[in-house]
Amino acid sequence: AVASTSREPWAWTWAVMTTVIVGWRAAYPLFARHADPEKRLFRILQVSALLFVSFGLGSAASIAHGDFALSMMSLTGVLGIVAGLSSRWASVPRAAIVTMTLTSIPPVAVLASHGGPEMGAAIVMVLLVLSIVAFTLQNHDYLLSASQAEEDLRLLAQTDPLTGLLNRIELERQLVEACSGLQEGGPNPRLAVLYMDLDGFKAINDEHGHAAGDALLK
User: Fold this and answer.
1) What are 8-39's pLDDT values in tens digits?
2) For residue 88, what are the CA distances in angstroms to 27, 37, 97?
């Protein structure tokens, strides 16, 4: 839309660059299926950040062009990207905040350089971005709390609270899963079970108390 409206070389360059980045972002998960998941995610974040930052630069050029409609469309797009990052990238807040900053700096700088009413718009935009950054950090804390609560519930359901070993329910589930692989051609052709017993454990509790027994079990 910007390229067809302004018909400037920079706009067409921006359109081509955006098309290339979006195409690479869409194709990368297909040919990187067997790559390390963390490395694959890092690459996707890198390319997405490059796309957002290039949008900020293109938006700055649109504002400098002087067309009111292009300026409004660009500012709306930048704020939309920043707002989207606050929720979709809340699990990686540092990357989100850096990308927000690099995306919003170019249009803010152009607005501020014009002075007058546009200086006021630049100040408002800075305040909006700062509020979204604060929301991102808060959202990250909520995600951590929810993840920790989920992990605590999982441990409570699957392990013995004293030793941290699997409880009977989880042991039986894993044994069933392991035995299902014993079929001919299955992933686990062999299975061994090691059974251990503590002789005289009752005497430990009787003579030294349950605290000593718990310590021995640990």
Assistant:
1) 777 778 788 888 888 888 888 777 777 787 78
2) 20, 18, 12
Whether the model pTM is above 0.70 = no
CB 49 within 8 A of CB 95: yes
H or E stretch covering 123? helix 117-158
Asked if residues 125 and 108 have their Cβ atoms less than 8 Å apart, the reply is: yes
The percent helix, strand, coil of the chain (3-state, each to 5) is 80, 0, 20
Q: Which residues of the chain have pLDDT under 50?
A: none
Residue matched to tokens 């990368």: 28
Cβ–Cβ < 8 Å for 48, 97: no
Cα torsion angle, 97, 103, 109, 115, sign:
negative
In this predicted structure, what is the pLDDT of residue 102?
A: 92
